[in-house]
């Protein structure tokens, strides 16, 4: 990831001075699905961490033990406790509070039919337009990622 720390190459355009720099977004909420309790959860959390973001991991209720063990292993491997935070609770209360929190810069969420209400709640948070699969900046300035299941 160090190669992404500095300025990146861009295609030169006549009459323009362009540059590309990757920056961390800040606090991200990772809400992985229940049906892939390790793979998707670990991938979403680690991708956020290695790109310099802080993660609040809120697993599905059925997968709390797997996520807790992942966090334990991550701490043992040297991930700072300030960078990876673990919370549990009902999606309709804890998940909604995390999604709506003003310091949440993006949301990594994967869900299926069972999680349709969560999809709708996250989508309602996006005031800039319809539900999309890519990063976009709502009017409130917060970055959100939304992954469809």
Structure report:
The chain has 149 residues and is α/β, with parallel strands linked by helices. The protein has one domain: 3-Layer(aba) Sandwich (Aldehyde Dehydrogenase, Chain A, domain 1), CATH 3.40.605.10. The chain is built from four helices and four strands, in the order βαβαβαβα. It has a four-stranded parallel sheet, with helices on both faces. β2 (54-57), α2 and β3 (84-86) form a beta-alpha-beta unit. α3 (91-100) packs parallel to α4. The longest helix is centred in the middle third of the chain and has 13 residues, at 64-76. Residues 127-149 have low confidence and may be disordered.
Q: What is the compact description of this entry?
A:
The chain is an alpha/beta fold. Helix content is 30%, strand content 12%. A 4-stranded parallel β-sheet has the order 3-2-1-4, sandwiched between helices.
């Amino acid at each position: 990831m160090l190669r992404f720390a500095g300025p990146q190459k861009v295609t030169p355009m006549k009459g323009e001075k362009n540059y590309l720099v990757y920056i961390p977004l800040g606090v991200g909420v990772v809400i992985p699905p229940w049906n892939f309790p390790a793979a998707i959860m670990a991938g979403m959390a680690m991708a956020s961490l290695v790109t310099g973001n802080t993660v609040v991991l809120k697993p599905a209720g059925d997968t709390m033990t797997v996520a807790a063990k992942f966090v334990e292993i991550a701490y043992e491997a040297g991930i700072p406790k300030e960078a990876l935070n673990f919370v549990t609770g009902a999606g309709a209360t804890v998940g909604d509070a995390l999604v709506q929190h003003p310091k949440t810069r993006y949301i990594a969420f994967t869900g299926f039919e069972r999680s349709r209400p969560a999809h709708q709640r996250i989508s309602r948070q996006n005031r800039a337009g319809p539900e999309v699969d890519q990063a976009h900046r709502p009017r409130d300035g917060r970055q959100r990622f939304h992954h469809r299941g």
